[in-house]
Amino acid sequence: MPAMQPGRGGFVLFAYHLCKWWAIGGGVILFGIVAVNVVSVVGLAIWRSPIPGVYEIVQIGAAVAMFMMLPYCQITGSNVSADIFTASLRPRTITILAGIGALLGAVFGLFLIWRMGHGLKDVYVYRETTAIYQFPVWIAYVPTLLSLALFVLAAIANMVQTAQGVLPEQVDHDATA
Amino acid sequence: MGQEFLTGLVGLIIMVLLIAVRIPIAFAMALVGMAGIYLISGPMILLSQMKSLAFGTFTNYDLSVAPLFILMGHLATRANLSFGLFRAANAWLGHFRGGVAMAAITACAGFGAICGSSLATASTMGKVALPELRRYNYSPALATGTLAAGGTLGILIPPSIVLVVYSVIVEVNIVEMFSAAMVPSMVAVLFFILAIALYTRIAPDAGPKGGRVDHQELLAATLGAIPVILVFGIVLGGMYLGLYTATPAASIGVFLVLAYGVARRVLSLRDIVAAILSTAKNAGMIYLIVLGAELLKIFMSRGGVPQAAANAMLESGLQPYLLLLVVLAALIVMGMFMDSLSIILLTLPFFWPVISGLDFGLTPNETKLWFGVLALIVVELGLITPPVGMNVFIINALARDVPMIETFKGALPFFLFEIVRVILLVAFPAIVLAFPAWIS
Amino acid sequence: QEFELKLHHFLGPNAPAQTQMLEPWAQRIEVASDGRIDIEIYPSMSLGGTPPELIRQVRDGVVEMVWTLNGYSPGLFPRTEVFELPNVHRNDPGATNLALAELFDTHLAEEHVGVKVLFQHVHAGQAIHTTDSEVRTPSDLAGKSLRIPTRTGAWVAEALGANPVSMPVPDFPQALSRGVVDGGLVPYEIIPALQLQDLTDYQTELADGGRLGTSVFQVSMNLDRWNSLPADIQQIFLDNSGEDWLREVGQIWADTDVQGLEVATEAGNTLVTLTAEESAAFEEAVEPVVTRWIEEANGLGIDGQGIVDAARASIATYSE
Ligand code: NA
Ligand code: NA
């Protein structure tokens, strides 16, 4: 077995798999949205009886699913950047720039956690709910904040990778060593 | 206003610099947006707004169309729907001069009709069609150029993720927007086939005739394309007929492709997980950029920049069509360097106030639809132009022996026909507007 | 200007709500202050966020003022919701506006936290719009799918034996044109914007123009900002948001409603005004909605019956 591939250290690999499974959870929610929509369309077409609150199920479900997909998007280096202007720089310089990008991502994520933590408190205290089902909105904030915590973890893992001279988007974690 | 306007301009310059040094576009927009709000309106407003802005942005109902169509496209890719499409198109067209390339374009169009992304269309059709094109000794330039250009049909033909985001920003009905892109995208397919016909008339060796198939194969191949045609018909047809709106339509599409793939045993659990993860990458990026763009919009709005830009442009006394030309040219140039979605999100807050203030003899809603199609085409042109031509890169990676410059050369005829198409659509907005008017 | 105030809202700059209500109101206040006050209206959510966030934005001071729909923030205004109920709001938006103001201090104030409510108002009320079937009795709606505006609207549909379908109002025309829904509960005022004259055949209202509930809107200012204003400036706002203004707002919404209805009748639609007897059947059928609301309110520790009685009494006083 070759020596540890750069950018695939224990911490990075751990973070990767955490983000991956969390994103798959988001995917399951997306499939749930699909099911609700299909049942509602069919129910409306055949029995004139739709699911009354599909709209708010989609809103809350898609938001939570997409927050859950953010950490995986980050750790795989999928956030689009314009790399044409830096293409001619030395590889080391490019990884440093990528590291700075990841740092900004981590800072943004932490800032969001801080602010949305207060947002969670607000929707809890003011008892905000969805319209038809009276679903308490604060519940949806919980997986959202967890997702953002993972997002920060992913950005830190990216910083570790770039410190080792590796670009996150070039690492294939699922390749068998 | 002067001070705030200046802050806005400096903010824009800093953002461009951040993007140039490879900072992810979403973060560059978000950070500059937040810094700008802080400078213009103070810390309290920024801190308060950030309590709910991200969650609110992510709950946008119309935006949910994007991840669903992306998921559908990735499932379709994994279910090998591209293979049946190409086989059918090739059975009908392959024996003409340049026919295999024409078949590749047709198959790209078919795949584009169920997939919302250019890159996915280019890579999946590239894998299927490139070996065939090489087998019939198509010139490397034509073979790879065709597929790079054909890939753009993924986003030119609805469903189209760029159009989803455009619709969300300018607040136009997504179904109407899709229907507006319908006829122009048919024109694109026609033009691409015309481009191949002309190309192979000038250079006959570049695209030899393929083999003619017997009736049995013709029938079998045609039947093989039926699943895609059914999915396309039910999803987009049902949407245009008004049986359901965009989000349910996309859900039905995911369901149909999943059901087909599982029933035919071409989608394993592993494939489904892979499709989810690919969706996480694409859709996650889109949602983050949308959030960044929202922050930038607030900054610019508080600085009065879009209104000032619109006024300056409108007071410049330039003819509406000249201003439109300036805007489209700017989009083409940006398309050469950046991905199309980022461009739309980045520039629309400035360009849209300008365009919507001009008189082209159209209603406001018609202007939204017309400009949406034009903007879509010109930002997608960048996918096949140097220096950054993502579709060219993808196809070229599948044909490592072909020099990159050959692929760019092969894509050039298609690029020229796209320019002709833009001129046509500018001159005759009816090509865009007739179909949405007819179905409603 | 000494006092620059941003007013944020969710409709476009050409919506009657901006041109006929918010702009005249803002202008009068500016003039009355001799130019010391400058109210800048930001339509179309141009200062960011989604419509449901408006109430948070004003509470947190992201913007100084908002015009928003209470229904965007379900759960936040459980008491004010009483005015959205059928058999509470009848046919006169002006009267309901005045009742909203009258009950504000005694019954509603505690749920408006962090904001100074300058005024609240309603639209003219939900009428029944249907595609091909005339509605004369509740049973004419049995089994039909109806687009509903709010959760209490869903209760109304259910009470009438119909299936409620919740959808954003821009999707309503398409759903109608393809038979996805058979009708919906919306005010007439929205007919021209959605081209409902071409998509529906019947507009139905109760006797004397009675409606099946309405929606409540508010124009509010951030409380800290309000408290920071000198008394004479505050007084200008209060003077221009009092009873006369509430009657005027009622008239504005009633007028746009009439104009909307005219568009439909000129296009050949049938306006069905139920007889007193027919109306009574509807009122009886939807009364369980009020009971249901009272039970829910009681569950939240609110005296549901008390608020319903007070609202009805107040609306009755202000109605001609
Ligand atoms: Na497409
Ligand atoms: Na390019």
UniProtKB/TrEMBL annotation, chain A:
Residue intervals of the Tripartite ATP-independent periplasmic transporters DctQ component domain: 34-164
InterPro entries, alphabetized: DctQ
GO cellular component terms given for this protein: plasma membrane
Protein task: Part of the tripartite ATP-independent periplasmic (TRAP) transport system.
Organism: Paracoccus saliphilus
UniProt family annotation: Belongs to the TRAP transporter small permease family.
Chain ranges passing through the membrane: 21-47, 53-73, 94-115, 135-157
Membrane topology designation: Multi-pass membrane protein
Subunit structure: The complex comprises the extracytoplasmic solute receptor protein and the two transmembrane proteins.
GO molecular function, one term: transmembrane transporter activity
Main location: membrane
First and last residue of the signal peptide: none
Protein's recorded name: TRAP transporter small permease protein
Assigned keywords, A-Z: Cell inner membrane, Cell membrane, Membrane, Transmembrane, Transmembrane helix, Transport
Lineage top rank: taxon: Bacteria
Localization: Cell inner membrane; Cell membrane
UniProtKB/TrEMBL annotation, chain B:
Membrane topology, record value: Multi-pass membrane protein
Job of this protein: Part of the tripartite ATP-independent periplasmic (TRAP) transport system.
Sequence intervals crossing the membrane: 12-40, 52-76, 96-120, 141-166, 178-198, 218-237, 243-263, 284-300, 320-337, 344-363, 369-399, 411-439
Assigned keywords, A-Z: Cell inner membrane, Cell membrane, Membrane, Transmembrane, Transmembrane helix, Transport
Protein name: TRAP transporter large permease protein
Residue ranges of every copy of the TRAP C4-dicarboxylate transport system permease DctM subunit domain listed in the record: 12-431
Subunit: The complex comprises the extracytoplasmic solute receptor protein and the two transmembrane proteins.
A GO MF label: transmembrane transporter activity
Keyword Cell division (UniProt): no
Subcellular location: Cell inner membrane
Superkingdom assignment: Bacteria
Stored InterPro entries: DctM, TRAP_DctM
CC annotations in GO: plasma membrane
Protein family: Belongs to the TRAP transporter large permease family.
